[in-house]
Amino acid sequence: EIVMTQSPAALSVSPGERATLSCRASQSVSSNLAWYQQKPGQAPRLLIYGASTRATGIPARFSGSGSGTEFTLTISSLQSEDFAVYYCLQYNNLFQWTFGQGTKVEIK
Amino acid sequence: EVQLVESGGALVQPGGSLRLSCAASGFTFSNYAMNWVRQAPGKGLEWVSGVTNSGGVTYYADSVKGRFTISRDNSKNTLYLQMNSLRAEDTAVYYCANAQRLSVWGKGTTVTVSS
Fold it and tell me: pLDDT per residue over B72-104, tens digit each?
């Protein structure tokens, strides 16, 4: 099983500042890596797939990078609506998805 | 509109059974593999089970193998999860998700296992 490790577990950021979230895979997942945003009481919302492609309707302040085992989600200028939990997902195998444990982005 | 709607969640006693359903619309259901994902209260996301587009091959997380059964009825555009021998640790919100269109998730249905 591929283990996904996200860091940090929590991040305190002021509105307008940049946030950088990391995700590491225990073995290569190529570019089969997605990022989701989840707010309380809501289903996860896809932000990035293919490690770096923004999903439909996702603002340009969200960007993804990386391949293989090291991945990064960057939010260039945090808006109030961006405070949430972010998960990475590897889908190298369609039927053995594994998620990172999440990074909570909090208001500083 | 592309949509997945889960139903069937409930409060059930330990050792009990429950069947979840996921109704799909707005896309050709029979073309896509599907997954179930769950989220325990205050915890992260956990993949539970998956099925190929035809329903011919199924996959399970070790935590549910032998207790849960995934199936689908492509004529009804519906995905199922039969859950037997339920345990307290199965308490979670259960989401169905399109395995190949990563943006397509349902809103979830809540399963609570408690006496």
Answer: 999 999 999 999 999 999 999 999 999 999 999
The nearest CA of chain B is from the CA of A76 a distance in Å of: 22
Q: Which residues of chain A have pLDDT under 70?
A: none
> Is the CB of A94 less than 8 angstroms away from the CB of B99?
yes
Please state, rounded to an integer, the average pLDDT across all residues of chain B. Answer: 97
How many Å apart are CA B60 and CA B24, to the nearest integer? 21
Q: How far is residue A68's CA from residue A29's CA, in Å, rounded to a whole number?
A: 5
Choose among B46, B59, B102: nearest Cβ to A34. B102
- Pairing between strand B78-83 and B68-73? antiparallel
pLDDT at B104: 97
Angle at B49 between CA B24 and CA A68, to 5 degrees: 105
- The pair phi, psi for residue B90, each rounded to 5°, is -85, -5
* Alpha-carbon gap, residue A32 to A49, rounded angstroms: 7
Q: What is the pLDDT of residue A95?
A: 85
Q: Which tokens belong to B112? A: 């609570």
* Below-70 pLDDT ranges, chain B: none
User: Considering only alpha carbons, which residue of chain A is nearest residue B37?
Assistant: A97
Mean pLDDT, chain A, rounded, equals 96
Q: How far apart are CA B87 and CA B95, in angstroms?
A: 18
Check if B107 contacts A (Cβ < 8 Å): yes
A89: closest chain B residue by CA: B45
Cβ contacts of B95 on chain A, cutoff 8 Å:
43-44
